[in-house]
Amino acid sequence: MSTILVTGANRGIGLEFIKQYLERDDKVIATYREKESSKELINLSQNKSNLKILKLDVASDESMKDFCKHLGDEPIDIFINNAGVYGPRDSNFGKVDEENWLPVLRINAVAPLLLTQLLIENLRRGKSKKLLYVTSKMGSIDDNKGGGSYVYRSSKTALNSVVKSISVDLLSEAMAVAVLHPGWVRTDMGGPNGLIDTETSVSGMVQVIEDLTLETSGAFFNYDGNVIPW
Ligand SMILES: NC(=O)c1ccc[n+]([C@@H]2O[C@H](COP(=O)([O-])OP(=O)(O)OC[C@H]3O[C@@H](n4cnc5c(N)ncnc54)[C@H](OP(=O)(O)O)[C@@H]3O)[C@@H](O)[C@H]2O)c1
Fold first, then answer.
1. Does some domain include residue 204?
2. How far is CA 137 from CA 25, 53, 144, 214, 230, in A?
3. Helix or strand or coil: residue 95?
4. CA 14 / ligand 1 centre spacing (Å)
5. 30 part of a folded domain
């Protein structure tokens, strides 16, 4: 049995991670921001003794510190940094402003490192020591043929860079680290035209996480296990 921590777990891809890990009888810690938008997760926690839910808003330093206090010295085997935002949908050339850009950078790229730093002792106590960060193929510079989407693209490119450094820095501690592209998934963020459902995306990523080793640490994986160019 592993202990798995998933951020942004009240809906979409995060909630599906919770469901699939609960089915395996793992111990699961799920984070959410607001009770009102987290009814399904809260209901699940009332019926599953192996699910613990904790509040976390990664846009707030105070919330991140409170979250870590509540977590205590719990060992974390697998950490999945899933929480993310898209930001303004029309962030194309001529329409980008700092006010809308910086909060997205904070949530998608800055908070994942701050949270990892705060959780490092929990991760050191874990057995499998796997750190995953849900990114997007839209953050691949190599794959960018469409241009535009400055805010979201740049936030995920920055996340990829951050995670690459984490993978290098923590290799000596036997931590396996990767960024995962979930595919274009039918969620609130992905919209109804997404190519795959959350079950397909998450079952693929769970397998990629299973297969992740120190030898493959530091890579950018698609949900089906293929490597995506940076
Ligand atoms: N869907 C896709 O096609 C797709 C493609 C590529 C990458 N991704 C990535 O996959 C991840 C999950 O996306 P999704 O499709 O499941 O999106 P979603 O349905 O919009 O869910 C986003 C999740 O992140 C949480 N979140 C947002 N801001 C937060 C904050 N400040 N603190 C803590 N949690 C926060 C949300 O919580 P609230 O309910 O409280 O807002 C929600 O649980 C994201 O990192 C996204 O960039 C998605």
1. yes
2. 31, 29, 9, 23, 9
3. coil
4. 7
5. yes
The 10s digit of each residue's pLDDT in 69-122 is: 999 999 999 999 999 999 999 999 999 999 999 999 999 999 999 999 999 999
CA angle 181, 87, 147 (to 5 degrees): 65
CATH code assigned at 53: 3.40.50.720
**Number of separate domains in the chain:** 1
Q: Give tens-digit pLDDT for 135-194.
A: 999 999 999 999 999 999 999 999 999 999 999 999 999 999 999 999 999 999 999 999
Q: In this structure, is residue 230 part of a structural domain? A: no
Q: Which of 6, 7, 10, 13 to mutate to test the pocket of ligand 1 (most atoms within 8 A of CB)?
A: 13
Model pTM?
0.98
Identify whether 229 is part of a domain: no
Ligand 1 pocket, residue 110 CB under 6 Å: no
Ligand 1 within 6 A of CB of 196: no
How far is the centre of ligand 1, averaged over its atoms, from the C-alpha of 72 (Å)? 25
Q: How far is the CA of 172 from the centre of ligand 1 (A)?
A: 31
Domain encompassing residue 161: 3-222
